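Box S2. Input/output pair 1.
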Amino acid sequence: MRHEEEVASVLAKLLPPGGTLLDIGGNFGKVSEAVKRVRPDVQIHLFEPIQQYADKAAARLSVFSGVTVNAVGLSDAAGEAAIYMHRGNPGWSTLDAQYAESGGETRSVRLMRLDDYALSACDVMKIDAEYWEGKVLKGGRRTVDRFMPFIFCEVSRGSEDLWYERVGEMERLFDIGYQRLDYRMSGRHDRLFRPKGKG
């Protein structure tokens, strides 16, 4: 089973009937597609900062209802930033210069805070932001506090340290009542942050 399908299987089980999923770092929309195939009842909001990738995600997901594709990245402040493209794997492009591939292309992308995005529900957040997970969460603190969603993160090498050292968002999740479960899928490490009393 491909990693996207493994992740989608976990997300689909966490979502309540008619629930809402945020696919943050949606890339080409493969995870959202896999979720919709087994859970056509759910609403999905996909965020992808690279316009070309967002366009591909929108085309892939156009056969489904209840999907909104946003060509914008999520961070702790609104504005524009350089994203560092990865030549070998599009999913490894990153906003963090420290982890950029040497000599890779850069593109300007638009950023916003999750807290500035109008949501009426949020049951599950999937974050695959290549070392930017902490900034995504910092810009979505009010959203997390309001909805207390399950938060599923693909944890890149070193990104856990970045959370502690730069923004402390993992520690904050524990402070507000989250528990952590570890997954290992297709050789990758993933984290599920579960609010106490859920699941």
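Box S3. Input/output pair 2.
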Amino acid sequence: MRPANQTENSKFETRNSKQIRIPKLEIWTRIGCAIRFSNLFRISSFGFRILFLALICLGANIQVAAAQVSNLKRDQEVVFFPTLACRSGSNCWDLNIHGCVYEPEKRTLALALIRAALGLEHVSLTPAENKLFAERARLFMVDHEGGRKIVVRIGDEEFTLPKSGANGHFSTVIQLSDAQVEKLRSLSALQVVMPAKDSRKFAGDLNFFNDAGFIVISDIDDTIKITQVRDRKATLRSTFLEPFRPVPGMADVYQGWAQKAGAQFCYVSASPWQLYAPLADFIRSNGFPAGVFYLKSFRWKDESFFNLFQGPEKYKPGVIEPLMKRFPNRQFVFVGDSGERDPEIYGALAREHPQQVAKILIRDVTEEGPDAERFKTAFRELPPALWKIFQDAAEIADLVH
């Protein structure tokens, strides 16, 4: 198995897990050594027996050398963000693989530091809140691991991914044929190939997006999850101390769109990637449709620290516009809330791509009402039927069909 190229347009070298490939130069080098070795025994039948046994052992060594596995240490883990698979040409699909290698943080001192940084050092916590705080705060204190090789199995084939960078992240594109994708649709998962003595399991989800139909771009905080982002103390509590709570009725609405209109979902949030695991669990446990996540890159030790403070008007278009270009024949439904800048962001995108935007739906958490001057400005030049301000999820249940 050879490592894959890291550019998006180049194909990965693939092999069936039962096949062995050896570079030709290496084969001839080893055969040449074997021939020279046989010259020592050219007058003896015993020598040929020795040569035969040597070649058998050589074959065994080749098989061992060819078997690629991930080189994660025992204290290192890997998380995969849901993989977006989309058609890139005739008989060709791109699988966008993205994940992170990290070492979990277990020191109590680190927890105390982050608690102080969040201004919670004097807040009295219940045992349940303390437990939840420890679980979520540790996600921000992990030690990212660079230089790790990850080998994944997708169906019956294996791929060696580019090594993780200094920030622990790795990403690349794997290209598969239509026939390969059809086999994978029922699996919808990739797995890390670990050494034989390491029984740990790491897996990621595959999401196959077709060329036509609806794509729902959904915000998370205060759109489908109650966060109260306009209140800093409430935001801290809902993020670190409380179980995530769904906005009533939104899961049923999304499931209705998925089942009746075939809608597929991209969850785009300004939350950092460290919250991916609890957010993914929130989506699953509350009955929201599976989908692809786009979260901010954030790390204490480098310039990505400042990404956490980047305004959504810069971050979100940078995620959404490439998706619109990738799926030019799909209709997009934008769902957000009035707590931050969703109306302005979605309105600007709709003016830029009028043929692709089917609906803009804004949950009114600021109680401004649909006639507010803000919304008229945000949605200027757009048809009134294109956008809707709502408070109850039932108001938008039948708008995507």
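Caption for Box S3: DSSP finds eleven helices and 17 strands in the chain. The chain has three domains: 15-66, 77-208, 212-396.
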